[in-house]
Amino acid sequence: MVEAVTQGMPILRLADVQTHIGPYHILHGVDLEVPRGGVTMLLGRNGAGKTTTLRTIMGLWQASAGKLEFDGVDITKRHTPAIAQLGIAYVPENMGVFADLTVAENMRLAARGGPVDEQRLDWVFRMFPALKIFWHQRAGVLSGGQKQMLSVARAIIEPRKLLIVDEPTKGLAPAIIQNMIAVFRELKQTDVSILLVEQNFHMAKSVGDTVAVMDNGKIVHAGRMAALAEDEALQQRLLGLSLAAHQ
């Protein structure tokens, strides 16, 4: 079931995207639209193809068929650096921080080697005060939650059109998850659009505006996140569980 959720051109559109990794056919014709503004949740059972979809968007794996379009530009055959330069930031599941560099050095690299905008850095520190405390410490000594804060902070230290994040709350303590919810709610008030893969359904319900559900390498449902959160029968059919049981 696919429900119309927006008007106007989406910032990101995937049309019949297929991806092979070696001999394995992972994506079987993904049709996905990410509206401008707000948060689009990409949900699905383990192995449904969510991370492969994100990596295909970023050009880390090349689509074997179909079309990917970002902000009106065909990115299907573009390489990762060229895609990032269009205004997309990607936070992978493994966080992607440089453990041997300090927090400050990680942030400077994310600013593409230029000076970090002090006003924007103060804004980041308000969301992630621990990063200011550990500014001169190596990223490798941070806790898991602090590393996740750093990974998200790196992605937003410069203005972006689209932020793609893969499971930002995985393995985090409840207090850190609440902090992440607050951060994404604040990001929703800016100009950035967000595509978010998440297994924590309290997080999904709290920040998601629209939702797409994957199964077996395809999108099987798209609509409003609030509508999915209110329909336990649909949750059971699409995800095999109830969101109410995972608050």
UniProtKB/TrEMBL annotation:
Record's keyword terms, sorted: Amino-acid transport, ATP-binding, Cell inner membrane, Cell membrane, Membrane, Nucleotide-binding, Transport
A Pfam family of this chain: ABC_tran
Residue ranges of domain ABC transporter in the record: 12-241
SUPFAM superfamilies attached to this UniProt entry: P-loop containing nucleoside triphosphate hydrolases (SSF52540)
InterPro entries in UniProt: AAA+_ATPase, ABC_transporter-like_ATP-bd, ABC_transporter-like_CS, BCAA_Transport_ATP-bd_LivF, P-loop_NTPase
GO molecular function: ATP binding
Family: Belongs to the ABC transporter superfamily.
Protein name, per record: High-affinity branched-chain amino acid transport ATP-binding protein LivF
Organism: Ralstonia flaminis
Gene: livF_5
